[in-house]
Amino acid sequence: MLLLLISAFLGVALYEVPSLIRNKYWRELVVFSVFFSFTFMLALLQTLGFQIPSPAIGVDYLVEDILHINYR
Amino acid sequence: MRLEKGVISSLQLFFLVNCFIQGALLPLTFAYPISKHDTWLAVIAAMIIGSVIALVYISLANLFPGKNFVQINDLIYGPYLGKFISSQYSLFFLITLSGYLWFIGDFVLTFIMPETPMSFIMIMFAFVCAWAVRQGIEVIARMSVVFAFIPAIIVFITSAMLLKEMKFTNFLPVLEIPIRDLIQSTHIITHISFSQVLVFLMIIPSLNEQRRAKKPILLGMISAGLILVIGTLRNIATLGPLSPVVTSPSMEAVRLIDIGKILTRLEIFVAMAQILLLFTISCIFYYAAVLSIAQMTKLRTYQPLVVIIGVLSIVLALISYQSRMQLSYSIMYNTPIISLHFYLVLPFMSLIVAKLRKLPQNNGRN
Q1: Degrees to nearest 5, angle at CA B213 with B207 and B215
Q2: Is B175 left (phi over 0), alpha (psi -120 to 50) or beta?
Q3: Is B5 within the bounds of a domain?
Q4: In 3D, which of B355, B62, B39 has the Cα closest to residue B185?
Q5: B92 assigned to some structural domain
Q6: What is the largest CA-CA distance in chain A?
Q7: Helix, strand, or coil here: B17?
Q8: How many Cα atoms occupy the beta-carbon half-sphere of B101 within 13 Å?
Q9: Is B322 in Cβ contact with A55 (below 8 Å)?
Q10: What whole-number distance in Å separates Cα of residue B252 and Cα of residue B165?
């Protein structure tokens, strides 16, 4: 599973990065790298079995338990 | 400098909006348990309210012709606060996209391919979406012209075939539920379909006639809203008290078609048509998320971000939702409230601030 994940991300990087470097799109490369590393971290942590806090449950908690503005 | 070189006509925008609203026939499932057999009234109310809200977005777009939403925020609130608000919207588009990906994964898993892991369905779906988004808005708009007709025709034909099964006493008594539930249901439907027209603020700048966005958007919303009403009427008349209970009323209602033991199990047509529509919706949200991020970071092209944002949305979807119950509960009770901030408060505030600062004139002078 880990191998599959790494090869998938490697594939994405090989698909995008060479054309960026060839066209000297450095700014694009930086933004791409930031998103790439963030996504890779999230996917890796999830594959390794860490419990990442769910944003949807976070929104539920915010609306229900902090703001108390939910229906019902 | 403009990121998107593609140009769409107002007819294409009409079909895009039409697809976008029609795609709510499956997510409408979340409203049935609240308003039961009066859901069709909630759909009509949501259509009217959504059209009024859409007028705000259209007037915002007309104030700044040729500018997309991120640029409008920058002009209204200045570079820093504008970036803050735009980043909220980018996150919002991304989370909505991941919600739709999860929804379609769950839908395919429940009705068509029960043995497949959900992540595979989402990856395949997101791959096709990424392909369409990389081609630009023109391709998505051209697809929508075809996609708008198929589901509408299927809704009409299945309604005609189900006439035998329908009992119109299922609608009685009208307005039996408390008014509070009707308001909640209207709010849910506005949240899942009509007010999401906000996302078209990212697409209107690609229109060939800048100030003519009003007619196609409103006509698209109303025509698709009428198809939604017909679909809802079909479901309630056919299923009756069963409609709040079943997983997906549209699928279950069409499953009842049985004409001479030959035309049976037609619900797969509904599934196919709705997947086409959900594909268009996902493409639009995907495109908006990618374009807003590229615009905020001042890139020269948005294409390098397309694949990685798709992967991010899949990962977000897998992290966010564990079960259908969680998604239903979230959409029924919590997210409509929090999305008011995005659909209503911020656009209204933007419009008022723009009027107070007399922005378009300043913009024209500079």
Answers
A1: 135
A2: left
A3: no
A4: B39
A5: yes
A6: 57
A7: helix
A8: 36
A9: no
A10: 13
What mean pLDDT value characterizes chain B? Answer: 90
- Residue B64 vs residues B73, B188, B212: alpha-carbon distances, Å: 10, 30, 13
Domain that holds residue B238: 10-365
**Cβ distance B20 to B281 under 8 Å?**
yes
Task: Judge whether B3 lies within some domain.
Answer: no
Count other C-beta atoms under 10 Å from residue B351's C-beta. 16
What whole-number distance in Å separates Cα of residue B303 and Cα of residue B27?
30
- How many domains are contained in chain B? 1
Q: Which of residues 18-57 of A touch B (CB under 8 A)?
A: 19-20, 25, 27-29, 31-32, 35-36, 38-39, 42-43, 46, 52, 54-57
Task: Tell me, yes or no, whether B230 lies in a domain.
Answer: yes
B259: part of which helix (H) or strand (E)? strand B258-259
| pLDDT of residue B247 exceeding 80 | yes
DSSP codes of every residue in B70-113: HHHHHHHH-HHHHHHHHHHHHHHHHHHHHHHHHHHHHHHHHHT-
Burial of B323-340, coded b for 16+ CB within 10 Å and e otherwise, reads ebebbebbbbbbbbbbbb
> What is the average per-residue pLDDT within A17-35?
91
Percent of chain B whose pLDDT exceeds 90: 53
Give CA–CA dist B174/B42, Å, rounded.
12
CATH of the domain at B71: 1.10.4160.10
Min mean pLDDT across B40-49, B207-216, B345-354 is at B207-216
The answer on pLDDT for B366 being more than 50 is no
Q: How would residue B258 be classed by pLDDT, with cut points 50, 70 and 90? A: confident
Contacts of A72 in chain B (CB under 8 A): 333
User: How close, in Å, is residue B15 to chain A by CA atoms?
Assistant: 31
Mark yes or no for CB contact B312/A69 under 8 Å: no
Task: Give the ipTM.
Answer: 0.94
Q: Is B49 helix (H, G, I), strand (E, B) or coil?
A: helix
Closest CA to A34 of B100, B1, B299: B299
What three-state secondary structure class fits B264? Answer: strand
**What pLDDT, on the 0 to 100 scale, is given for residue B365?**
47
Contact A27 B293 (CB under 8 A): no
With beta carbons less than 8 A apart as the criterion, state whether A35 and B94 touch: no
Q: What is the DSSP string of B145-184?
A: HHHHHHHHHHHHHHHHHGGGT--GGGGPSTT-S-HHHHHH
